[in-house]
What we know:
Blueprint: H1 2-9, H2 11-32, H3 34-40, H4 45-73, H5 75-95, H6 99-131, H7 136-153, H8 157-160, H9 163-181, H10 200-233, H11 244-267, H12 269-288, H13 292-307, H14 309-317, H15 325-353, H16 356-380
Amino acid sequence: MKSLRLILSNPRYFGPAWVFASLNILFGTWAIYIPTVKEALTIDKSQLGVAIFFLSLGVFTVFPVAAKIINKFGVGKVTWYGILVNCLAALLPLIAPSYWMLAIALFIFGATQGLTDIAMNTLVTEIEKEDKQNFMSAAHGFFSLGGVFAGLGSFVILAIGSPVIHMAIVVFIVIAINFFLYKNYFHIKAAPVEKEPFSLKLFKPLLLIGIVSFIVMGGEGAIVDWSGLYLKEISIAPEALWGAGFLAFSICMTTGRFVGDSISQRIGSVKVMILGISIAILGYFAVLSAETAFTIMGFGLVGLGFSVIIPELFRIGGNVKGIESSQGIAFIAGAGYAGFLSAPPVLGFLAESSSLVASFFVLLACAFVVLAAAFVLGKRQV
């Protein structure tokens, strides 16, 4: 909890952490109104799926250019302006008058989310380097908290009565708090790196980290989408417990991220990854037991294990020798998003052709791949 105390006691650290929370507050508030937008534009599920694909397309489109933007203008400036344009973009899907305008609005929203995501992770990496303080994991904990705040906002939907007004209020609050904090990081620029010519030897560690990011984020996406159905169909849990798996996963992930930095400072990033994926593997075994209590506990253990891995990947990727921090982080973020978006449908096809249990056996096997990759990273001392 040292990093959490650090964030709460010093605006230099709270400023970037609040950007993490802000990003998920905006996204989570939009997600609440997806059914409302679908109904207002009278579109079917397949059309909605295509529109949401444009959001993902926006995220991926910005990844190749994000590092150049950050290096040209400065990571502090891009983080501040990124969250501002993301706030404005968050309003667009809710005021879109037609289906194609919705798709364009979501593309813009996704692009601004992606740029801010890379900028804020690079910002934390640079501050950690300057101050010799670890708070990346806790910053990701604030991202999780942002989702909680967005969810709590759903309780005021009936009182407000308008999605646009609701989002406008959220945008005002997000901008107002960031306005009081951005001066603490606005001036920060990424430290110059002695870049080396591209070589396979240089790229190998980053590629390995990207594979781990793809698998871990893919597992997270799968649990978000499939944990409820698993409890319903495989564990035969009562309806009241169908959401308990995701709840346990989310609570443990948030908790783990607030303690991850202290553990990382004591044992190092690679050992934290090994510890995290080992806990996740135990969790998958508990899930595959199919007994309701163990399954719910298993989802919680997977969340706890995953909680420390992604922050450590960003920390490692931002410090790969010969590669600028923004480039490393952009690559890892891109790989992670690819896994998060592609794994659920792929596992869905597998579940349809075989069974949902087979899908979770695949996730377990992938977790062992991550464990092996972590040992390889440890030997290379990335």
